Amino acid sequence: MAGKIEVIQGDITKLKVDAIVNAANTSLLGGGGVDGAIHRAAGPALLEECKTLDGCPTGEARITNGYNLPAKFVIHAVGPVWHGGINREEKLLASCYLNSLSLARENDCDSIAFPNISAGVYRFPKELAAEIAISEVKSFMNRNAKPGRIVFCCFDEENFRIYNDLLAKEREI
Ligand code: AR6
Description:
The chain is α/β, with parallel strands linked by helices. The protein is built from five helices and six strands.
């Protein structure tokens, strides 16, 4: 694996990377959490472009411009709502990461930052979500040179600790 994985704690809207990922909903028309923060920081033109996309199914992703954000693109990924794991939630969350990375590669992005998709109001268990995110990202990086820099942007202390612990544990193996 030639690329680099970083974990930071902070606000994803401030990051100067080629693409930031949004934890969106199927309407792609905005919401709370990180979605609300991204729309506020990008400005109203983001919503105008999202309106042209006709929504996005769970597990898939769509790309738009970043407008007033430091990031060039926003990749809107729709994570699953956690219903106890009986509705293919793990598979759908993995697809969000894979589809986002594929869009980043297709658009020649060298760097991409992910929030903790589904780990907020969609109630996906944080530890399991982090395991899926890391494993999907690593397997993509083993097969693709781009994007070579992946940032896991954690907003809260707990996720920041979970990601750091998991990555440290893997380095020991
Ligand atoms: N930067 C980085 N991470 C953030 C930020 C930020 N500025 N703000 C919140 N987070 P959530 P979901 C973290 O609820 O669970 C929206 O209404 C947050 O602490 O934003 O996928 C959408 O429209 C948490 O760890 O997304 C959907 O309807 C993580 O981002 C729904 O919420 C994800 O929390 C999607 O729910």
